[in-house]
Design brief:
386 residues; alpha/beta; Rossmann fold; Rna Polymerase Sigma Factor, Chain: A; seven-stranded parallel sheet; four-stranded mixed sheet; 11 strands; globular
């Protein structure tokens, strides 16, 4: 029996994680759950999984959640203090870090310091503070398991192999909803168009990142830290079928890949149960029914955001934090109809061009860089918006 905390239990990763827990009540027990604004779903999860602690992101929601949990044996907390309490709960052995954005930095760092293993679904943790978190992981002797399908695929493909034998890492990308859309039409695409992902069911922010290819840029930075691989040895291939989740090429010319039906429950279950495997309900892959698997290079005009991520990781430690912050603001502005789809990249590039990169020593410095990037990106979005 493994005791887990889920940071972000009402998001897509959190919900899928609880489906794995529900399917294996003899293997996993929920100690704490945290959520943002979806209190109704959080309460349903509390009733079903009986956590000791439930946390809301905003302290002002504590009284309402307490009222909704009347009669239930659960402690209710809120804000950063609550998130840290959930991440460091005595009984917890593994923390599923699934809060989207920079909000996940502090509780994830607290969990590592409390010597909890991490199932990492929060890209921003390594994007904004990669070396700081990997240093913490080493210092406190915890294990870090990637939950992203691509990084899980790499993790599975390097098991039993030496890092020095890796020639390159190849991340695959579906191409998103605009795979076949001419670049000239992208300025006029709608929010609804951008949220219509052909292969994956994800939250809004991540789905927009897929459409702009920023998700792949973030994954390149994440892979650089997770697998201690220079960024110039990490490349991206468009793979529309989303069957090959990523690959590792070795110095002897061999390529090892992980394949599977697109479903996040598979990488989540692998992280939760490692080194075991458990049933997930994911449909087995039948290669005989596939018409073919294709791979090609991204188009520069459609992958500006990914290019900005490569630029950020080579510019200096604070630049990825600023880039990530600008992206979060620009995506939110696009979802609110205030800027166009292609202006997401414009806002990020202008924010980065105004920043002089510097080394980051503490999490607090990461958060300052994040704040700076958000404030400037908001101003830029107002300037360029409709």
């Amino acid at each position: 029996m493994k005791n887990i905390t889920i940071l972000g239990s009402t998001g897509s990763i959190g919900v899928s994680t609880l489906e794995i827990v529900e399917a294996h009540p003899d293997k996993f027990r929920v100690i704490a759950l945290t959520a943002g604004k979806n209190l109704e779903l959080l309460v349903r999860q509390i009733r079903q999984f009986s956590p000791r602690l439930a946390v809301v992101a905003f302290p002002e929601d504590i009284p309402l959640l307490k009222e909704m949990c009347s009669g239930l044996d659960v402690t209710v907390m809120g804000g950063v203090e609550g998130l840290i309490a959930a991440a460091t709960a005595d009984e917890t052995e593994m923390v599923v870090a699934a809060i989207v954005g920079a909000a996940g930095l502090i509780p994830t760092a607290a969990a590592i310091r409390a010597r909890k293993d991490i199932a990492l679904a929060n890209k921003e943790t390594l994007v904004t503070a990669g070396h700081l978190f990997m240093d913490l992981v080493a210092e406190y002797g915890v294990r870090l398991f990637p939950v992203d399908s691509e990084h899980s695929a790499i993790f599975q493909s390097i098991e039993g192999h030496r890092n020095e034998d890796i020639q390159k890492i190849i991340l695959t990308a579906s191409g998103g909803p605009f795979l076949n859309t001419p670049p000239s039409l992208l300025p006029n695409v709608t929010v609804r168009d951008a949220l219509n992902h052909p292969n994956w069911n994800m939250g809004k922010k991540i789905t927009i990142d897929s459409a702009t290819m920023m998700n792949k840029g973030l994954e390149v930075i994440e892979a650089r830290w997770l697998f201690n691989t220079p960024v110039e040895r990490i490349e991206v291939n468009i793979h529309p079928q989303s069957i090959v989740h990523s690959m590792v090429e070795y110095i002897d010319g061999c390529v090892i890949a992980q394949l599977g039906t697109p479903d996040m429950k598979a990488p989540i279950a692998y992280a939760l149960a490692y080194p075991e495997r458990v049933t997930t309900g994911v449909k087995p892959l039948d290669l005989t029914t596939l018409s073919g698997l294709t791979f090609f290079n991204p188009e520069p005009e459609k992958s500006r955001c990914m290019g900005l991520a490569y630029r950020a990781i080579t510019s200096g430690e604070s630049m990825p934090a600023v880039m990530n912050a600008a992206n979060e603001i620009a995506v939110a502005e696009f979802l609110d109809g205030k800027i166009s789809f292609t202006q997401i990249a414009d806002a990020i590039e202008r924010t980065m061009s105004s920043h002089s990169a510097y080394d980051l020593i503490t999490i607090e410095e990461v958060l300052k860089a994040d704040h700076w990037g958000r404030e400037l990106a908001r101003e830029i979005c107002k300037e360029i918006g409709h």
